[in-house]
Design brief:
Layout lengths: L1 H19 L5 H8 L6 E6 L5 E5 L6 H13 L3 E2 L2 E2 L4 E6 L9 H14 L4 E4 L2 H4 L11 H10 L4 E4 L7 E3 L13 E4 L14 E2 L8 E4 L13 E4 L2 E4 L5 H7 L5 E6 L8 E6 L9 E2 L3 E2 L6
Parallel strand pairs: 1-7, 1-9, 2-5, 5-6, 8-11, 11-13
Antiparallel strand pairs: 2-14, 3-4, 7-8, 9-10, 12-13, 14-15, 15-16, 15-17
C-alpha cells in the first residue's frame, strides 16, 4: 500500500513539473524567430531619452551574461525577461557564441528576450555566428541553428529625430565591405519615411554614417577602459573576460554600455557599466561621454 501511495505521489509530481516547464524550448524559440534569409540591416528612429543597453563579445560566457541581466533587473530595466519601459532597447552586438562552455544558456537567454520583446531586442550577427563557431557547441540540429544565425541582421542604423545621418551598430566598423552588398529595412511603420519606409529596401553608403558602435578591435588597451573605448568616430565594446581577453588584453571585467538618445547624435551620451577584479558581482558606472568622445 505504501509503495502505491509513493508511486502515485511521484506520478503527480511529474505531471506538475510538466505543467510548469516553459512550453518553448530553445529549439522552438529559434524556429519562431527565424524570419528571413536576406542579408539585411535594420533602420530605427528613436525619440529623446530612449535607452539602448549594448553587449558585445559574450563568447559563450553564460555567467557574465547572467550577471549583466541581473544588473539590468537591478536598474529597473527588466522584470524577469520582459523589458519594463517601451523606450528601452537591448542590443547584442555579435560574437555571443564563442569558446566558453555556456553557449546553450547564452542562446536560450537571448532568444527568450527576443521572443518576449520582439520590437526591443536585437541580436546582430558577428563573425562567430556567420562562420559557424557554434558547430558542436550547442545541442541542436545544425539546420535550425544555421537558419537562425543566417537570419540575424548585420547591423542596426539608429536615427535621432533631428539628424539625417545615422549611428550604425554592427560588429564590423567603417572598413567593412559587407554593407556594400546588403539592403536595409525599416522596422517602424511611418516613423522614418525620410530614410526608409516599412518593408522598403534601401542602403546607406559608408560616408553617410556619423558614428559606429562595434565589437572588438586589436590594439586597444581594454584594461584601462572597462569594456568601452573610442577611436575617431568608432566606439568599441566587449562584455566578458574570456580567457583570450584576460591573456591578450588584461581585461577582467563584465561590462555593457548604456547609450542614451538625444534630439541629435551630438546630444546622445554613452557610458560603460563594469565590474572589477575585486568585486565581480558589483557594477560600477563609468564616465559619461558624448559620441564624439568629449566628457558629458
Amino acid at each position: 500500500m505504501k509503495k502505491v501511495i509513493i508511486g502515485s505521489i511521484f506520478f503527480i509530481i511529474l505531471i506538475l513539473i510538466a505543467l510548469f516547464i516553459p512550453k518553448d524550448t530553445t529549439r522552438d524559440l529559434l524556429q519562431q524567430l527565424t524570419k528571413t534569409q536576406e542579408r539585411t540591416a535594420l533602420v530605427l528612429q528613436l525619440p529623446p531619452q530612449s535607452r539602448c543597453l549594448l553587449v558585445s563579445n559574450i563568447q559563450g560566457e553564460s555567467n557574465s551574461l547572467n550577471r549583466i541581466l541581473q544588473q539590468w533587473r537591478h536598474m529597473g530595466m527588466l522584470k524577469d525577461y520582459t523589458i519594463k519601459d517601451p523606450t528601452t532597447y537591448l542590443i547584442f552586438n555579435g560574437n555571443c557564441i564563442g569558446p566558453a562552455s555556456g553557449n546553450q544558456e547564452v542562446l536560450n537567454s537571448i532568444a527568450t528576450l527576443m521572443q518576449r520583446n520582439p520590437s526591443q531586442v536585437f541580436y546582430i550577427q558577428g563573425p562567430h555566428e556567420s562562420k559557424e563557431w557554434w558547430l558542436n557547441k550547442i545541442d541542436m540540429p545544425s539546420t535550425i541553428l544555421r537558419a537562425f544565425f543566417n537570419s540575424l541582421p548585420l547591423g542596426l542604423y539608429i536615427f535621432t529625430q533631428e539628424d539625417t545621418l545615422p549611428l550604425r551598430i554592427s560588429y564590423e566598423g567603417s572598413e567593412a565591405t559587407t554593407f556594400d552588398k546588403i539592403s536595409c529595412r525599416s522596422i517602424q511603420e511611418g516613423s522614418i519615411k525620410a530614410h526608409c519606409t516599412l518593408g522598403e529596401l534601401c542602403s546607406f553608403a559608408q560616408r553617410e554614417i556619423a558614428y559606429y558602435l562595434v565589437g572588438e578591435e586589436n590594439g586597444i588597451d581594454w584594461s584601462t577602459m572597462q569594456g568601452l573605448q573610442i577611436t575617431n568616430t568608432t566606439w568599441h565594446i566587449i562584455s566578458s573576460p574570456t580567457l583570450q581577453y584576460k591573456e591578450k588584453y588584461r581585461f577582467f571585467n563584465d561590462a555593457f554600455a548604456l547609450l542614451t538618445i538625444g534630439n541629435t547624435l551630438s546630444e546622445c551620451s554613452i557610458t560603460s557599466y563594469h565590474t572589477t577584479f575585486s568585486a565581480p558581482d558589483t557594477f560600477i558606472e563609468g564616465k559619461v561621454f558624448h559620441l564624439n568622445g568629449e566628457p558629458n
